[in-house]
Amino acid sequence: MPSTAPTWLNRALQIHLVALAVLGAVFVGSRHETVTVPAVTAMAAVVALLVTDVLGIVKLNRWLGNGIILLAVVWSLREFVRITPEEKLMAIASMLCYLQIVLLFQEKNARIYWQLIVLSTLEVVVGSALDLGPQFGLLLALYAVIGLATLMLLCLYRELRPLPTEPLAAPQKSLPVWSLLLGRPEISKTPLNLAATVTPALLIRQTALLAAVTLLFAFVFFYSTPRLSEAAWLGGFSGRSGLTGFRPEVRLDQRGRLHLSSQVVMRVALTKIFPERRSIELISEPYFHGALLSEYKPDEAGGRWLPWRPTVASPDRPRERFGGMMRAGPQTTISLVREDIVMEASTVGLRFAIMPTQPYSEMLTLAYGGSTPREGDYAGPARQQRFSVATPAIVSDRQLHGIPNPNRLLSPSDQLAFAEEAERSLAIDPSRIPRVVETAAEVIRQHELTAAPSLDKALALERHFLAAGAYHYSLNLDFPRDPALDPVEDFVVNHRTGSCQHFASALALMLRSQGIPARLVVGYKGGTFNSVGRYYVIEQRHAHSWVEAWVPTEEVPAAELAGAPSDGGAWYRLDPTPDRDQFITIAKETVGTRLAQAFDYVELLWRDYVLSLNKNRQDEFVYDPLTARAAILPSWIEPRAFQRWLRLLSRRLGFDWGPAPRDRGGRRAFETSLAILVTSGLILLLAVAYGMGLAWRGFQRWCAGRLAVSRATSHAPAFYRQLERVLARLPVVRAGGQTPRELATAAGTRLLSLDGAALASRVPADVVSAYYRVRFGGCRLDKNEMQAIEQALAALNAAVRQKSPLRQQ
User: Fold this and answer.
1) Do 410 and 365 meet the contact criterion of CB atoms below 8 Å apart?
2) Measured between alpha carbons, how far is residue 302 from residues 115, 256, 308, 364, 655 in Å?
3) CA distances (Å), origin 470, targets 183, 371, 447, 497, 654
4) What beta strand segments (E) does 448-587 contain?
5) What letter does residue 330 receive in the DSSP assignment?
6) Cβ-based neighbours of 597, under 8 Å, separated by 6 or more
7) How far is CA 374 from the centre of its chain?
8) Pair 524, 493: CB distance under 8 Å
9) Cα(99)–Cα(104) distance, rounded to whole angstroms?
10) CA 787, 791, 797: angle at the middle one, nearest 5?
11) How confident is the model at residue 404 (pLDDT cuts 50, 70, 90)?
12) Which of 125, 183, 268, 799 lies at a 20 to 30 A Cα distance from 772?
């Protein structure tokens, strides 16, 4: 049935539907395996608006459209059973796009509009499973505003449908004057002209108000609803992310060109703790430790560096599973810098930090000198890891070189472990690399450092690689090599060109040839400093290898030692790679880079305060400031207090849902018994609320009835009270809770059943209508109307007197 809605309303509804279709395609296409289908959907929405809605050139038949829809569903889901869950999601997204395209080219009516709205909403649901970045939040807010406007337009569109025509009434007999005066007025059945009252400006104003209230409610509800779970929900497919630039080992047989990846690995914010709290940007590039490689193994393919696991362990410091040193107690210093680290998904299970580290508050800490914890050692989101530590390695906005050995030689087992690592860090086969050994000795002789301290020798060897023109850093490893030589020997003797791994390997072996314990460190160097959010963004292209040489503590300058001195010496950082920065560092900061930094900061805030808002973060950022600092909410509203009350209640009822001691990964009873308890409590609460609602509505109806009776008897006009007195002789008496109109209906029915009183049967209804006009409409009856009422009541009184039961007796 065609609509009588004004043209602007139809066009506005069509434009809003096209906007929803385009947004739905954007949601789906953000992470779709192919953007062809979503892009075609967006273009089809715009084309359909022109050729179908505006020009009316192309309009698919309903049955033809249904057939195409059936074929699209079958085609999209043809291999639905055999594909992976991710592919199933993509198939559903494609099917929604196909259905939307078909509906867009059909003639629009209320049914088609509703179906398009439902399809676009389902596309948003699919999009939420594909990507939950900050752009999703912005698009979702825009979609909510447009969706509310679309629903308002659609409701108005449905209200403006034409009313069904009624047949003409049969001509009536001549009626008395009083009947014509008191009769019900004729009302036109033509539809209302809402176009004069409902204007585009009014719709825009109401939509904006409704959208603002909706978004405000969603914001307050999202942040204020207590979370009982520790797990954060993060979007996207976890299998699509991973570290590809960093490896926990070094292989020197790589060929081809090394491609720098811009994949973000982590974000690190450095904050000075004492005496004033301020963010820090280092003068030089920071070094973030990953894995320690102490064992060099030549093989047929070349050579590789591997992490070393000690065989000696002290009772209080067990052996590390990954790396070369044991964990140590925290260092002591009065100058600490806090490291807030947010890491993306990692396939190597490592955490990175500026070493050494100190415990910070109650947060997870790292101990330098060995492995960093793997993912299984802590609880965290599936796609993001965050932790905070403090380090004494930053002084005057500069990272120090010397790291005290965590092994302080406090026990015989510590001394055995120290000797074992020193032996491993000095392991070398001079027969495989004779020219490397010779080159190191020649450098020491040239600088007359034969009897010099170990640190002076190490610095001289580092400068050997950094001399201008002596060696060349390159990302292109396709150059002639001698397969008969060790890769390090071939690097030093022949081509002298390589990556940071070649330079670090050569320096480490040269140090060992001079009796200086040395090892490789793989991690990240540098990063792009985000001046908007005041943090470093470390990408895969910042992956780097460098060397740490062991030297006695007394050889390290006090200004270069990070933390308290150790009897076990110190590990001194050496970086022999020349000219690396010109390949890694991006150009100077421009407007474009500032804009990119702003977007990156928005993404970090989105992850922190939306996707990662678990119970602990909600307590820290929402409830604690309100209850402890601002004292706005009482303490019993806190989620922790609510959880304690739930625990106490469950134990009294025989449930025990607390985690078992030392059981970090075991199954919790919350999944079974407490779930039943909470579900039953919620059902009971809903039942009580529903019962109270019914009781309240019944009480309101009872009060309204009493009030109506009271008002009717105290404020009724004289002619209405006379009507009730006349009707009481029939007898028809108004019952409690009965309205005057219902009384008039009952009296009319009674009069129709009496002979000769049919004409008077309309009097009660006419008098009650006049009563409603006076009582509730605020009207004043003129002289003619009052005379008509008096004549009608007189006629009614005469008819009642003739048929009164008392008179018949």
Assistant:
1) no
2) 64, 15, 19, 39, 62
3) 113, 35, 17, 9, 77
4) 472-473, 497-498, 518-525, 528-530, 535-539, 543-551, 570-574
5) P
6) 528, 530, 531, 532, 533
7) 25
8) no
9) 9
10) 140
11) very high
12) 799
Angle at the Cα of 794 (from 790 to 797), degrees rounded to 5? 135
SS3 call for 667:
coil
Task: Give the contacts of 608 (CB within 8 A, at least 6 positions apart).
Answer: 342, 617
Tell me which DSSP letter residue 248 carries: S
- The pLDDT of 554-570, averaged and rounded, is 90
More confident residue, 201 or 614: 201
- List Cα–Cα distances, 694 to 688, 700, 716, 786, in angstroms: 10, 10, 32, 44
User: For residues 644 and 647, what is the distance between their CA atoms, to the nearest angstrom?
Assistant: 5
Q: Residue 796 phi/psi, 5° resolution? A: -65, -40
Q: Is 518 exposed, middle or buried (0-12, 13-18, 19+ CB in 10 A)?
A: buried
Lowest mean pLDDT among 97-101, 323-327, 774-778: 323-327
- Tell me which residue of 177, 176, 181, 182 sits closest to 771, measured CA to CA: 182
Distance CA 599, CA 134 (A): 9
**Is residue 200 reached through a cis peptide bond, with omega within 30 degrees of 0 on the bond before it?**
no
Give the tokens for residue 180: 């014509």
Structure tokens at 208: 């904006």
Give a three-class secondary structure readout of 48-100: HHHHHHHCCCCCECHHHHHHHHHHHHHHHCCCCCCCCHHHHHHHHHHHHHHHH
Query: pLDDT tens digits for 367-386?
Result: 344 333 333 333 343 456 77
- What Cα–Cα distance (Å) separates residue 656 from each residue in 640, 652, 768? 17, 9, 68
| Burial of residue 326 (number of CB atoms within 10 Å: 0-12, 13-18, 19+) | buried
Residues making up the chain, counted from first to last: 809
Contact 767, 742 (CB under 8 A): no
What is the token pair recorded at 194?
């809402």
Q: Which residues of 394-407 are buried (b: 16+ CB within 10 A; e: fewer)?
A: beeeebbbbbbbbb
Neighbours of 16 (CB within 10 A): 23
pLDDT digits (tens, 9 = 90+) for 318-355: 444 443 333 444 544 457 899 988 887 765 667 899 99
DSSP label at 406? S
Q: Please report, rounded to a whole number, the percentage of residues in the chain having pLDDT higher than 90.
A: 15
Query: Measured between alpha carbons, how far is 113 from 156 in angstroms, rounded to an integer?
Result: 13
Residue 83 structure tokens: 């594909």
Using an 8 Å Cβ cutoff, are 113 and 154 in contact?
yes
Task: Report yes or no: 546 and 504 within 8 Å, Cβ to Cβ.
Answer: yes
Element (H, E) at 785: helix 783-803
Q: What own/partner pairs with CB < 8 Å and gap ≥ 24 does 205-209 have?
A: 206/152, 207/145, 207/148, 207/149, 207/152, 208/145
Tokens of 79: 């291999």
Contact, 787 vs 735, CB < 8 A? no
- Contact criterion met (CB below 8 Å) for 104 and 48: yes
Task: Give the integer Cα–Cα distance in Å for 681 and 686.
Answer: 9
The identity of residue 546, as a single letter, is W
805 residue type, one letter: P
3-state secondary structure of 744: helix
Ramachandran class of 397: left when φ > 0, alpha when ψ lies in -120 to 50, beta otherwise: left
Query: Is the alpha carbon torsion for 440, 443, 445, 451 positive or negative?
Result: negative
The pLDDT, as a whole number, for residue 685 is 78
| Coil, helix or strand at residue 645 | helix
d(CA 670, CA 146): 40
Q: Which two tokens stand for residue 347?
A: 């396939």
The two beta strands, 518-525 and 287-293, are antiparallel
